[in-house]
Structures are given as C-alpha cells and as structure tokens.
Amino acid sequence: MVKIRLARYGKHKAPAYRVVVIDSKVKRDGGYIALAGTYNPSTKQGYVFNEEVVLKYLKTGAQPTESVKNAMKKSGLWKKFLELSKTQEVSKAE
C-alpha cells in the first residue's frame, strides 16, 4: 500500500519533515517514491504541499496518515481532493 507520510530530516533537536509518497513497508526515512511537500515546525509557514503531486497520488489510491490528512484539511487540499473526486464520479456516470 502506498502512503503519504512524514519523513524526518534536520539537525538533532531541530527536526524538519518531508511529506513523501512511500510504500508502507519502507522505513520512516527510507527511499520514497515522490516528494510531496515539507513541514518545518519551527517556522510559522508550517506545511507546504506540492498540490499536483499530492492530488495525483491521492487519485491513484495513496492513503495519507492522520497527521498529513489533518494538515491537508487545514490547508484546504483535502477539500479540493474531495471536490475533484466527486466531479470525476459524476463524469464517469454520464
């Protein structure tokens, strides 16, 4: 199963995270399929998503972790994904 989750990088006691698309069986900091964004808790900017990559992998069935899903809800990206999936379902039915 493909997941969208956080991979830690940065200095000791100063973590930063990459939002990555990765196989669920790979280690936390293992090789990832695609870089989907970043998160730096020490800055006010917070999460930065690459919308094209995130939406592409969500459409193909990637599952976000709870922390990434909550961040996508705050940024409005999850709502955008739900709207896109609804419009695709309507177009398939026609």
In the sheet with the most strands, the strands line up as 4-3-2-1-5
Unreliable segments of 5+ consecutive residues: none
| Sheet of most strands | 5 strands, mixed
Return the structural class.
alpha+beta
Alpha carbon gyration radius: 14 Å
Number of strands: 5
Helix-strand layout with pairing:
Layout: E1 2-11, E2 14-23, E3 34-40, E4 46-49, H1 51-59, E5 63-64, H2 66-75, H3 77-93
Parallel strand pairs: 1-5
Antiparallel strand pairs: 1-2, 2-3, 3-4
Characteristic key phrases:
94 residues; 3 helices; 5 strands; 38% helix; globular
Describe it for me?
The chain has 94 residues and is α+β, with helices and mostly antiparallel strands. The protein contains 3 helices and 5 strands; from the N terminus they run E-E-E-E-H-E-H-H. Strands 4-3-2-1-5 form a 5-stranded mixed beta sheet. Strand 3 and strand 4 (46-49) form a beta hairpin.
